[in-house]
Structure prediction request, 177 residues.
Amino acid sequence: MRTDLVIRPERPEDAEAVRELVRAAFAGTEYSDGRPESALVDALRADGDVLPALTFVAELDGRVVGSVVCSRATMGEGTSVGLGPLAVDPGYQAQGIGSALVASVVATAEQRAEPSIVLLGDPGYYGAFGFETAAPLGIGSPGPWEDRFFQVLTLRAWRPELAGPFRYAPAFEALEG
Ligand SMILES: CC(C)(COP(=O)(O)OP(=O)(O)OC[C@H]1O[C@@H](n2cnc3c(N)ncnc32)[C@H](O)[C@@H]1OP(=O)(O)O)[C@@H](O)C(=O)NCCC(=O)NCCS
Prediction:
């Protein structure tokens, strides 16, 4: 990882840079032009569902080059954390920035005694952080994706009886359609 990288909680004045970053990062994927993910972040903010303590930016020389947004989600009768979007500026990918952002979320979620973090993503990427397929743990997927994309990281506060249907914050419903 780069030694000049700063990971810090997102501040209100980062919102515009994060919007552009999310759009640019997802525009480089085969399944999106970046607009749905960018709109998702805006909608999560508008709804007040972003978790500020678990939402970070990565900065290099004062410039935002990475972002992870976490939002409040529910699982069964309890709560969970929804991780995503995670985005790194296309010019700065594959330098450990995404990993540093995920590691910050995981460490902070542990400190805050969150029981679980859930996401939709590439198992090849998130498996390295300990995420596993959620369905075998009894965690119900909120959408029609293949099970292997719907992943959970159980933390120290996890207990098997917390498993149940998972629901993202409402803003995700636009993506799920
Ligand atoms: C996915 C993304 C956030 C990763 O961030 P990054 O800073 O480029 O990733 P890192 O440098 O931390 O990568 C860590 C490791 O994962 C690997 N990796 C990166 N992207 C990967 C992918 N899509 N699938 C599998 N492995 C991947 C890297 O090769 C690296 O492996 P290494 O440590 O053995 O060298 C970034 O590439 C991105 O913004 N992509 C477009 C948006 C996106 O797809 N977001 C995630 C949606 S689930």
Observations:
- The two ends are 37 Å apart (CA to CA).
